[in-house]
Amino acid sequence: MPWLELSLTIRAEQQPRVEEALDDLGALSVTLQDADAETPDEQAIFEPGVGELPLWPTITLNALFEADCDRRGLGEALGDLLPWLEPDQLQFRDVADEDWERAWMDQFKPMPFGQRLWIYPWNIEPPADQDIVVVRLDPGLAFGSGTHPTTALCLAWLDSLDLHGKRVIDFGCGSGILAIAALKLGAASAVGVDNDPQALIASADNAERNAVADRLSVYLPEDVKADPADVFIANILAGPLGELAPTFAAAAKPGAPFAISGILQGQQDELLARYAEWFDELRVDTQEDWVRISGKRRAGTH
């Protein structure tokens, strides 16, 4: 069914009251975006703290209502709740019903990483080629499709390793793409860790789709009870990567290859210094504006 979308641009400090008013008037959903998106004034928000909701100075709110909602009545009611609101701040449009995830999947094409590894959407049948390793993927609601440079950097790194018989930890597993790729590349087992329960569901579903569910275990960070891994990988963000460095060091066996990504250009120097306490042979690889740091766990440090 179609929907009615109401959009208005406001200041950040007005957001709580406006969102409350929209909810009171029956909004089915309210989304926020930078009003300066795709302009020189656009501001990226990468690393909100726990419990924080950082906002842009100027915000565009988009609220969905039932298609038969009375536009004039909605505008008048919103004006009663928000007397400072000007009528010309309100914009209405009809929105066709669409399965956005499936629409995205229609555009998601097979992608190669390294020498052997390919990521295929679940709705495209891969060729019967014994020389390639295929991961079938439906990202669901979790991050990780291979299209982002950080995921691509991590997939290429996994493809470069001899993973046969190894145990892998994937911290920040998202869709499970890295853990599943490691299993398809020969790892004996993998542990996926994420603080988003939806990610654990997506990882388990994708593991089932790739016939590796019996070798993948998924956990929230507070529930992990795993021995140190033969290979460790984490694709999150620079802030948590710095904070969790001692945890990651403890999660990797001496000599274990490790890689971290989710790092923007300019953030790597601080992380290199941080990780040098526990890891050797540190190197930096880049793709677009993103960085991967890799190396090996040093023996004899805790």
From TrEMBL:
One CC-aspect GO term: ribosome
Keywords in alphabetical order: Cytoplasm, Methyltransferase, Ribonucleoprotein, Ribosomal protein, S-adenosyl-L-methionine, Transferase
Catalytic activity, as annotated: L-lysyl-[protein] + 3 S-adenosyl-L-methionine = N(6),N(6),N(6)-trimethyl-L-lysyl-[protein] + 3 S-adenosyl-L-homocysteine + 3 H(+)
Annotated S-adenosyl-L-methionine binding sites: 151, 172, 194, 235
Job description of the protein: Methylates ribosomal protein L11.
Broad EC category: transferase
Statement: the UniProt record of this protein carries the keyword Transmembrane: no
Keyword Iron attached: no
Family of this protein: Belongs to the methyltransferase superfamily. PrmA family.
A GO molecular-function annotation: methyltransferase activity
EC annotation from Swiss-Prot or TrEMBL: 2.1.1.-
CDD domains, alphabetized: AdoMet_MTases
Protein name: Ribosomal protein L11 methyltransferase
InterPro entries to which the protein is assigned, alphabetical: Ribosomal_L11_MeTrfase_PrmA, Ribosomal_PrmA_MeTrfase, SAM-dependent_MTases_sf
NCBIfam families in the cross-refs: prmA
Protein localization: Cytoplasm
Any Pfam family the entry gives: PrmA
GO biological process: methylation
